[in-house]
Design brief:
- By secondary structure, the protein is of the alpha+beta class.
- The chain has a domain at 64-157: 2-Layer Sandwich (GMP Synthetase, Chain A, domain 3), CATH 3.30.300.
- It is 39% helix and 21% strand.
- The protein has five helices and five strands, in the order αβββαβαβαα.
- The strands form two sheets. Strands 1-2-3 form a three-stranded antiparallel β-sheet, with no helix packed on it. It has a two-stranded antiparallel sheet with strand order 4-5.
Length: 165
């Protein structure tokens, strides 16, 4: 099934019933037995591990949460470029994305309560290859910037509630 087929099929389903546009995702996490930082994560039928590097008290068995956040952004960018290229009829031969983020550990460790614990700056570098002109790729960049769900998470405040049971 092509991306155009997915776009058309989704449009038809949403036009038939707007409730079809509402989706929900769920991820389960559990601290691995006998560890202080290794987290086992389950997403649908997939599993992966999260850890910290030794400098942050971990065993470096996997990427850490902020690295996964950057990976989520970069991955979403690549997918969203492909999706919007198909939607706009722009041929893409290759998409490469590099994401860098700056984080000040004063916030995470509570050394300075005025320092936020999250990223102070994130840089996304996109390299596109294909036969289209620069103006079409700029049109594509604008569409991706407007519609990438993970970029939206980085750019905008999202209501979050936490419950403890």
């Amino acid at each position: 099934m092509s991306l155009t087929d997915v776009i058309d099929g989704t449009r038809e389903a949403v036009q038939a019933d707007p409730h079809n546009a509402a989706v929900s995702f769920s991820v389960d996490h559990e601290l691995a037995a006998g560890t202080a930082t290794v987290v086992d994560v389950r997403v649908r039928d997939h599993a992966f591990t999260v850890d910290e590097p030794p400098a942050l008290g971990g065993t470096d068995k996997a990427a850490n949460p902020v690295e996964y956040a950057l990976a989520a952004l970069g991955s979403c960018q690549v997918i969203t470029y492909q999706f919007w290229a198909a939607r706009l009829g722009i041929q893409l031969d290759a998409v490469r994305v590099k994401v860098d983020g700056d984080l000040d550990l004063h916030g995470f460790f509570g050394f300075n309560e005025a320092t936020r614990p999250g990223f102070s700056k994130v840089r996304v570098s996109v390299e596109l290859e294909g036969p289209a002109g620069a103006d079409r790729y700029e049109e594509l960049r604008r569409a991706v910037d407007e519609h990438c769900p993970v970029l939206d998470l980085f750019r905008n405040e999202t209501p979050v509630t936490t419950t403890i049971s």
